[in-house]
Amino acid sequence: MARRKILFCDNSLRELLNFRKEIICHYASNGYNVVLVAPQNMDIYQWELPNIRFVPIIMNRSGTNPIEDLKYFFRLKRIYAKEKPDYIFHYTIKPNIYGTFAARSCGIRSSAMIAGLGYVFSRKNIPNWIARYLYKTALRYSEYVLVLNKSNRDFLIDKKIASREKIILLSGGEGVNLNHFQIK
After folding, report:
1. Structure confidence at residue 140 (pLDDT)
2. CB distance 61 to 39 below 8 Å
3. In the chain, which residues have pLDDT < 50?
4. In terms of C-beta distances under 8 Å and separation of at least 24 residues, what long-range contacts does 81-85 make, across chains too?
């Protein structure tokens, strides 16, 4: 029987490993092949578990150039089609939007993690209006939308950005190792 494959997509390898290493290692230690897709913004070190691989991707994390974003979408689609994961977890706005569209186009189930609503939802200008529209459209194709607090959940429901049935409130957090991030 083939091993199951989980893919994690973020806009930063450093943040992906910094905040989600515990869940990544959990899947890997339970026999899953794990693929990490993110821009390489840190040196790669030896993985503790052999079944974790990193696939670097080029993206402009904060740009609003639609041509660059389309290139990012097609890069993701190529990676997803090649990797054929059983499931994808997307983190941060561009992976949540373009990654969800790419996963959908490849027939792969995925979830979007929204840790915070950020500037896209607080500023009223044309680029942010477009981003909100893309978010709303993409989240229709996400199997689940994971949020960390009730106010974000309520906002997404009230503004009809995501349906109540898809939203999962992770009231206990997303699995960040609090021993690593201690209050000083």
Report:
1. 97
2. yes
3. none
4. 81/106, 83/5, 83/7, 83/35, 83/55, 84/5, 84/108, 85/5, 85/6, 85/7, 85/35
